[in-house]
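Our platform keeps sequence and structure together, in a single record for each protein. Such a record has a labelled line for the sequence and another for the backbone structure tokens. Nothing more is needed to write down the fold, since each code stands for a local backbone conformation. For reference, a complete record is included directly beneath this paragraph:
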Amino acid sequence: MNKVILMGNLTRDPEIRYTQSENSMAIARFSIAVNRRFSRQGDTDTDFFNCTAFGKQAEFVEKYFKQGSRMLLTGRVQNDNYTNRNGEKVYSVQIIAEEIEFAERKSTADANAAKRSNSFEGNAPEPNAAADDDFMNIPDGIEEGLPFN
């Protein structure tokens, strides 16, 4: 079985390309930073993974994620080994995304919404004091563009 589950933040905006075939398909390439639960003293506490999404998942990433966005990704590990021009074997691994979900904390989502509101209207909305959960509110009308039901 080849399955990986990662939760982390995008290190840069996703790069989106489309195939040149008759039925053009989106391909999104992005990198996520995943914090380690435990690390030895002196070791890095973050791992960086190169990821690729295809089709509807790629379009979802393009539309709703940008640098710094937190995502939950389920996929598989794929080796991309090759021999370079100098005849040296190069080993690399990438994650092929199968499922992608929002993973923003509610407090972060509220802060981002306030920033967007400030930049457009001049004043931030009051946070919802009654909501004590840690889930983000999904905007109305978003269901049509989501790749999952």
User: Anything to note?
Assistant: The radius of gyration is 18 Å. The chain is about 15% helix and 35% strand. Residues 106-121 form the longest helix (16 residues).
